[in-house]
Amino acid sequence: MADEQNRPKDAKQRQRDEHRAADPESGPLTTDQGVVVDHTDDSLQAGERGPTLLEDFHFREKITRFDHERIPERVVHARGAGAYGYFEPYESCSRFTRAAFLQDPSVRTPVFVRFSTVQGPRGSADTVRDVRGFATKFFTSEGNYDLVGNNFPVFFIQDGIKFPDFVHAVKPEPHNEIPTGASAHDTLWDFVSLQPETLHTIMWLMSDRAIPRSFRMMQGFGVHTFRFVTADGHGTFVKFHWKPKLGVHSLVWDEAQECMGRDPDFNRRDLWDAIESGAYPEYELGVQLVSEEDEFAFDFDLLDATKIIPEEQVPVQPIGRMVLDRNPDNFFAETEQIAFHTANIVPGIDFTNDPLLQARNFSYLDTQLIRLGGPNFAQIPVNRPVAPVRTNHRDGFHQSAIHRGVSYTENSLTGGCPAIAGAGGEAFSHYAERVDGAKIRKRSPSFEDHYSQAALFWNSMSGWEREHIVQAFRFELGKVATMSVRERVVAELANVDAELTAAVAAGIGVATPPAAAGGGAAGGGASSGRAASPALSQENLPGDGSIRFRQIAVLVTDGVDADQIGRLKAALGGDGAVVEALAPQDGTVTASDGGDMPVDRALPTVASVLYDAVILPDGPAGALASAAEGAALRFVRDAYRHGKPVGALGSGVGTLAELEPGVRLAADSGGVEVDRGVITDRSTGGPSQEFHRAFASAVAAHRDRSRPSLRG
Ligand code: HDD
After folding, report:
1. From what superkingdom does this record's organism come (predicted)?
2. Catalytic residue among 77, 224, 341, 702
3. Going by CA atoms, what residue is nearest to atom 15 of ligand 1?
């Protein structure tokens, strides 16, 4: 926080200063009217044991204000967490867009990003299986630009008119409001089974992409094909990609489920704490560009939001980076009241006729009107553009501007102001796309293929990713009570891949249907063509090798070598990781030299699922196992079976074998050994540089995929 005060402020931060409420330390408690209050713990009453008096304006105001604290939560994406930061382009993008914030590498544009889950209410757990929202508001010099994306590049439906149907299906069942934050129930899968267009995105939902380890470790996508427009009016189709510097990493389902109980705020806390500690999340913005001449060069329609443009076909060009470096001051004022709108665009960026996008362009404004209680929500500090605002809009609920002068165009009384800029120059002008056609309510035939890209995704997955997808389908469909729904979903899967279908069917008590001829491929579903896009596999998104703000547990007990713990903390902490000493109880442990060593946390208050890796340091072998009464044992076993890096030093290697008898240890070579993410060094004194390097690179790689327990 001290750092925050010292850093130079951008235009948005300076604007926030203007709106910050009076500092509580600057004087005594007052009413909303500024009247100083003498006492706030007893209401005004007639006599010591008498009734409360209506004239107690402080009491009435206090209770009324409390009664009115809640506003409607977002109908979707209710649970979220956000942060401020900045975006800077690598170089001028003037060749394909005139957008001012994409011109000058020396200009930083302030941003606010809100990450979210979709299905659950505001109080639901973070680590549910769900799409994650990734919405960015750029406070550009030409007005606010909102890129309201997700961590999947595709969406469940093709036309926004189906959005209420989809959301009603995925939300909890209407009669009992179960399940919270989960898609594993009949209505969602009934919808899926009847709407083949959902299938591609369902493949993403069943993959580990739907349970990210951290908002700092997931991609973001604009999903739709948008349009870049140059200063001379030339248009280029564009898809937006955010790529996290730390790589794309996920939880495994077992961990995700346990996290919901151990820390329902797992992702929110990670984002907050990382920023507080100075480990600022960073993402690279990339674009896929398609010239207008190539609009029909693909075997899918660019306007169909259930399709990606494979990166192997159109490479992603990096154009800039975004860093999130400030937490909000107040969750409600900022993260809850931020209002995104897909139609908030700036000169140089425009829409396409994607029917999903067109519907969104109506829905987001409409939803803010009800959620934020009227049309003046752009005046709420978090939403205010840093560009000047001069409109003829007036009045309405919660008007906070004191407008002067007349409010119509044209006028002669205020000198014709605000002036009309006219076409060209700084004004936004809509891209002059030629459109003509009959009014019809009909899906374009070019949107018809629902299977090829579902299969492309499946074909692009590594072995472990496929196993996790099969397990996810089995879990979700196994929760569906209606057998005919299970059967219909499996019949749909038969259009994607025969192996996938058989594996899912076998787990949910459904007969494997005959292989479908879907996608034009006889016998094996659309996957038989075996087209693959390596860019889709998380295996190929390792990140920059950094372990910034990764959480590493060191299990300690009496007799531990305190100097070794200090060296571990220095070495891994030097890489940006958080290293915590966990002991059976809080306070201190007695180190081998007889001194007290502080403990960071008591083992029973935490769990392996909250850490990325664990180390068993040198110390009396077995002491930890007996002293921790099972907490250490469970910690190490969970870490091991979840494929996390496990390190052991000196006699800690013996403790590891005692706690997890299933562990495979390499033969003692007298130095550092690495076997499937288990890094050991039986010599005393360490950690050596070699151990440090091997352990840090295992943490950066996130997980060893070959552990038998992870293979299902
Ligand atoms: Fe949406 C919120 C992303 C389709 C209607 N959506 C919302 C948020 C994100 C997305 C990230 C949360 C914004 C925030 O943090 O405040 N939505 C998407 C993506 C879509 C998509 C990537 C498909 C490509 N959405 C979509 C459709 C409709 C909506 C088709 C309606 C026709 N979405 C909404 C909404 C929400 C919303 C009801 C709820 C709260 C809000 O807008 O501000 O208007």
Report:
1. Bacteria
2. 77
3. 114
Closest by Cα among 352, 322, 328 to 241 = 322
Ligand 1 pocket test, pick from 132, 148, 170 with the greatest ligand atom count within 8 Å of Cβ, gives 148
pLDDT tens string 29-64: 999 999 999 999 999 999 999 999 999 999 999 999
* CA proximity to 155, closest of 133, 174, 136: 133
CA–CA dist 552, 306 (Å, integer)? 39
CA 399 to chain CA centroid, nearest Å? 33
Q: Are the C-beta atoms of 279 and 214 separated by less than 8 Å?
A: no
Set out the domains of the chain in order of their start, with CATH numbers. Answer: 76-372 (2.40.180.10), 451-540 (1.20.1370.20), 551-700 (3.40.50.880)
Residue 566 — φ and ψ, nearest 5°? -60, -40
| DSSP characters over 150-205 | ESSSS-S-SSGGGHHHHHHHHSPPTTT--STT---SHHHHHHHHH-GGGHHHHHHH
Residue 329 corresponds to which tokens in the numbers above?
Answer: 């001051």
* H or E segment and range at residue 674: strand 672-675
Specify whether 77 is catalytic: yes
Torsion of CA 219, 224, 225, 229, to 10 degrees: -90
The preferred substitution site among 74, 75, 113, 241 for testing ligand 1, maximizing ligand atoms within 8 Å of CB, is 74
Determine the atom of ligand 1 nearest the C-alpha atom of 222: 22
Question: For the packed helices 631-641 and 652-659, what is the interaxial angle rounded to 10 degrees?
Answer: 80
Q: And the tokens for 358?
A: 């067109």
Angle at 101 between CA 326 and CA 233, to 5 degrees: 155
Q: What is the maximum alpha-carbon separation in the chain?
A: 90
Strands 109-117 and 80-89, by their bridges, are antiparallel
Q: How many CB atoms lie within 10 A of CB 314?
A: 18
Encode pLDDT of 465-518 as tens digits: 999 999 999 999 999 999 999 999 999 999 999 999 999 999 999 999 987 654
What is d(CA 542, CA 565) in angstroms, rounded to the nearest whole number?
28
ipTM confidence score: 0.99
Name the packing angle between helices 186-194 and 483-493 (round to 10°). 40
Is residue 344 part of the annotated active site? The answer reads: no
